[in-house]
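Researcher: Checking consistency across runs. Here is Ca2+/calmodulin-dependent protein kinase again:
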Amino acid sequence: MALLSDVALAIQLHAERKADDPEVTIIHRQGASNRRRTAYGELSNRQEWRRGRWIKDGGFGQVCLEECISGSGSSVGRVRAVKKLMKARSENYHHELNALALFSLGKYRDNFVQCFGWYATEQHIYLAMEYLPHGDLQQYLDTHLIEREARLVTIQVLEALEYMHERHFTHRDLKPGNILISTPGPNWWIKVADFGISKRTEEGLTSLRKAMGTQEFAAPEVILSDHKSAYTNAVDIWGTGMVALLMLVGMPNMNFKSILRFAVGMDKSLPDQKLITQEVTSDARAFLQALLRRDASDRPSAVECLNHSWL
């Protein structure tokens, strides 16, 4: 298991249940005499947060809302999302904590969902996260996006991946459900979320071997993985291509079976008839062809993608 980074340790919190109200968590910052300013104002040394409704229950954890009901500073009345992980089922939670802490630094605030701190019990890890009430990209894809909007979202996803890859992190589960909406269209502002299966590689070591992620958006080398063959940051490029394709055609028109047949080599070419029917530009189609190359070594890097003529 990976060790916690200094950045992750710096945002560790001390938490306890309020004696007369188990729905309230009392938070103390670990050994912090100085207050830390976040997007939610100051986090003072003592705050009380009341648990609200549960908003997500997935394979990598549960998420509930909490409201600050007591504490100095400007956080009273604010709402945050708290992710609950079972230690026994979350073998990679140290990876998630390290990634969350790193990409919650100020310079990454516009690109990633922020983590304001974490605390642990004997059985669980709790992550105090930024709450984005507009939900995730998946909720907006009952129909396709116009090409200008799909391009805007794609640029922001690639900018986030550029940051991740240059710091030697691979997301490994890029999909619409892990792209949260800070501002909905037409002037989209998105943030990349859920580092539950992200993986950090040592500098100079570019391969990963454990097959994880969501099947519909998984790269061919992940789908066909024997857990011995290596794969790289190129899995995130494939995921970006799948997200861009889905935005351009919409969920009702997305044929995941055809994509899977292409990914595993049963079909020779990427199906693009829906793109032609919906008059997607040739630049956009060329962009998708580049990102969705079956051979991982043929896919462009995030930086190269950002220099593509479509963007």
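Researcher: Does this match what you'd expect to see?
Model: One thing to look at in this run: Confidence is low (pLDDT under 50) at residues 31-36, 38-42, 201-209.
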